[in-house]
């Protein structure tokens, strides 16, 4: 791959930059330089200690990588890739697909499927979450960002921690939300009565969810909200909406029992994702339309 050195990489040794961009060890990167497989501009680069300047273009060879033995690639996992380059993959995750292995779910995850198409992910991030920067609940559909290089992973994790990644959701909730917009600010932690659930808890971690009313329906009484995460706690939107008396439609954990308006999933869809590209520094924006089953439900409702 060809990479133009950005200000974030300027001044670093060539072998370190190759290691960061590909995820291979420093020794493997240095060996590639010594073997004449790396180009700086039109010339072969033979010194791994050469510090690169902003604007220079380095051409890096393809390295063979082995998939981590802890996670098996699975080619039959269904998901859609909306965008990819050498550093970032944007995936549209369907509802029902778990992002990465966890208790009781060792196979059949998005991570297993990603490894089948992108084996280089095995060297990026956590072994059980290769390349995964953030996650979506099993019942949530929509946009998910995956880092394809070590440098991208580090930069995107920094953006996430600094709350610079713009994540927005469409969410249908029970009841009529009266305020046109608002913020739910309540700490979230493990429920003291059921450790498999999350809850608003005094000893929980800071959590903030912004919301804005998109449409209201009077019969049945439901409200379509546009939610924006300012933090990224487990089940955050579901817990916060339930806490203000407006649980997410289709939520069998934090919502109502019985009536799910014909859905076998959450009405929660990650429809917008914005961030700064971790290597080139350009703003990136992605949008996703509602899945058919959610759009069909909206068409059946009389919004006023």
Identify the overall geometry.
elongated
Q: Which structural class do the helices and strands define?
A: alpha+beta
Intertermini distance: 53 Å
In CATH terms, what is the architecture of the largest domain?
A: 2-Layer Sandwich
CATH homologous superfamily label of the largest domain: Pseudouridine synthase
What is the number of helical segments per DSSP (H or I, 4+ residues)?
6
Q: Total domains, how many?
A: 3
Average pLDDT works out at 89
Unreliable sequence segments: none
For the CA atoms, what is the radius of gyration? 22 Å
Portion of residues in beta strands equals: 25-35%
Q: Helicity range of the residues?
A: 10-25%
The run of helices and strands is EHHEEEEEHEEEHEEEEEEHEEH
CATH topology of the largest domain: Pseudouridine synthase
Q: Please write the CATH class name of the largest domain.
A: Alpha Beta
For the biggest sheet, the summary is: 9 strands, mixed
Q: Total strand count, please?
A: 17
């Amino acid at each position: 791959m060809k990479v133009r050195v950005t200000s974030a990489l300027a001044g670093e040794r060539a072998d370190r930059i190759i290691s960061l961009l590909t995820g291979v060890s420093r020794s493997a990167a240095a060996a590639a330089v010594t073997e004449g497989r790396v180009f700086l501009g039109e010339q072969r680069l033979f010194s791994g200690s050469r510090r690169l300047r902003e604007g220079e273009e380095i051409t890096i060879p393809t390295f063979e990588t082995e998939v981590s033995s802890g996670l098996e690639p699975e080619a039959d996992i269904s998901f859609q890739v909306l965008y990819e380059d050498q550093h970032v993959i944007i995936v549209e995750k369907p509802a029902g697909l778990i992002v990465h292995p966890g208790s009781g779910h060792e196979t059949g995850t998005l991570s297993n499927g990603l490894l089948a198409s992108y084996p280089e992910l095995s060297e990026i991030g956590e072994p059980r979450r290769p390349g995964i920067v953030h996650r979506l609940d099993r019942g949530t559909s929509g946009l998910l960002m995956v880092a394809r290089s070590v440098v991208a992973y580090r930069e995107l994790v920094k953006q996430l921690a600094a709350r610079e990644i713009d994540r927005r959701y469409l969410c249908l909730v029970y009841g009529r939300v009266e305020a046109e917009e608002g913020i739910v600010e309540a700490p979230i932690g493990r429920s003291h009565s059921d450790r498999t659930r999350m809850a608003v808890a005094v000893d929980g971690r800071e959590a903030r969810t912004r919301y804005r009313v998109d449409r209201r329906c009077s019969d049945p009484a439901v409200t379509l909200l546009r939610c924006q995460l300012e933090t990224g706690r487990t089940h955050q939107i579901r817990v916060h909406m339930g806490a203000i008396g407006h649980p997410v439609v289709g939520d069998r954990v934090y919502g109502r029992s019985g009536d799910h308006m014909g859905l076998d999933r959450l009405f929660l869809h990650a429809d917008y994702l914005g961030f700064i590209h971790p290597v080139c520094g350009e703003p990136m924006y992605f949008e996703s339309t509602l899945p058919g089953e959610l759009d069909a439900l909206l068409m059946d409702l009389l919004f006023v």
